[in-house]
Structure of Alpha/beta hydrolase:
Amino acid sequence: MKKRSPWPAAVGLLLGASIVPQLSAKAREKNTARKLALWEASGPIHRLALYDHEDGIVTGVYKSPVDGLPLAFTIIEAESPAGLVQIVHGAQEHSGYYKVFAHRLAQAGFTVLLSDNRGHGDSVSADHPRAYISSIDDIVADQYALTLFFKNRYPGLPLAMFGHSFGSLIARNYIMAHDDEIDKLILTGLVCYPPQAGVGLFFGNVESFYTSPKRRGALIRMMDSKTKAALDTISNNPAFLHSFRGDDKLVNYYLNGGAMAIWDSASRLKDYGRYAVKNPDLKVLALNGTEDPLTGGAKGLADTAKTFYKLGYEDYENKIYPHMKHDLLHENASEIVIWDIIRFLKN
């Protein structure tokens, strides 16, 4: 009797073992959508604690509608606001990097909401440590809830969202379902669509599922050298780079869940079926430096513009700054960028 080859069974087991983590990721996405829908149906109820409100600065925590994680936030109020700006910070950093910028916007007549993304700054807990992100869907849900809280506190004012780097990815995932909540979108350090993100996400989900999303697996460790090298592409400002490296609240290395959330957010950029496009009149301003590798250069910026146009966002403007790197707000000539943003907000 001819022996059966063990290979078909082995291949089947391998395929099954790799598919289960992808199904688990989809289940997490659906679970977040379900919790957010229940929260919206209930009111929604804004659960927060204000720590201080003095001299036009409000500080506190807002409990996420997804899991109750306390999200640290600061509001910097303008005396007679003409509008609102919600800032979404980038990878590794926290909202503190944007306080000087927020005060400038407030002086120009815009009340600003700053918050620490989950797993960053002070938006951490024993169950949700720094460098861990439960999912990109959870971050988007957090920012959406903060939008409603912000607009409810200061009603009748137009709202712009500002997102830098990973924050630009969060903002682009945000508009998939919530573009009708904002009037303008400002993106800096715009990350281009990386075709390889889906592959990294697939294998990363496998590793994360069979180890833990709160650990640093082998695949994530392989990316650490690239993260270190990326520090040299942030800014031409040595004083800022020194302070950045010395920040004890900085995320030095992402855990599996953190890296997966970033890759997932990038892999969805061209998943056109996710975009409801409820506000095609959304005004979009993209600002980038010529020395920023994350934009993908002229080709990547053109591809990003085509994506917005294809979705139906025709009011899209891209501005490029010669010799500047990734973090435009912390460049030597950041004043030029800030004035361009203020003009866009006032227009």
